[in-house]
Amino acid sequence: MRRIKLRHLDTLAAFMKTGSVTEAALVLHTTQPNASKSLKQLEGFAGIKLFERSAGRLRPTPEAELLFSHAARLMDELTVFENLSLDLTAMTQGYVNIGILSAFSTALIPMAIESFNNQYPGIQVQVDLLDSDKIHSYVSRGNYDFGLVHHPEHESDLMTQTLKTSSMVCIMPPDHMLAQHRIILASDIADQPFVTYPRSVPFGAAIFRSLSDEGVRPSNTLISNQSQLIRRLVERGRGVALVDQFSVWDANELDHIVVRQFEPRIPVSVGMILPKRRPLSLAAQTFVSTLKDVLQQDPTS
């Protein structure tokens, strides 16, 4: 079956706008015989008379005018398609949707967004804070381009990648007596007001287990399951805290808390999960690359 081609619509549009086959040919940078042939082929494909010759000139029939109105809309849509393709390639348009744990919203993701947005201000970035189970579930359904969790679960419809492994760190106000130490030991915080995660979450369980193994029972403990709140409490002088280092990845920009290495080391990772059946867009790939660059920075320098 013969199909109408784009060049037929181009010729029709040029003819309808100029009223002349010769001028249409000039607009299209082709010859007058080629333009005439294209209009004749279009008429054959349409199966209806589209042009009449009068006084040596072609005149469009009402049917040609109706087809042209539809062709014009098609050409406009094609222009939108072409412009969008260029914008997506140049990354002046697009979007990135991410599901993350709240711990990454305090420092790591804002740093990545700042760097990415400076380079690609036209890309919309949406970040939703969810628990780990929801992140795995929604990413597997394709609701997000990718997700960030601490411990990626291996599932049949997900791909996983560990982006960085670090450790829990001790944070405190700059004028705190422990700020002079380069490394904070469990015994150092034995008698200090302490801000931490609850035992019911993995971080909290790991911290209390580590302290217990060292014979330390924290006093005057404030508890929250949100890294951002723990950080704010420390900034307000409510004590020292052990937190996920990724929640203070902007440590070298801070002047209201100090970050110190903690021993015994409690490892923590940032892992990425992606849907197997949905490849990353160019914008999402670039955001991941930006995130990896941020993770290469030394937050203590």
UniProtKB/TrEMBL annotation:
One of its GO terms (biological process) is positive regulation of gene expression. One of its GO terms (molecular function) is sequence-specific DNA binding. Transmembrane segments: none annotated. Keywords: Activator, DNA-binding, Transcription, Transcription regulation. Residues 4-61 form the HTH lysR-type domain. Belongs to the LysR transcriptional regulatory family. This is Positive regulator for lys. The lineage of its organism: Bacteria, Pseudomonadati, Pseudomonadota, Alphaproteobacteria, Hyphomicrobiales.
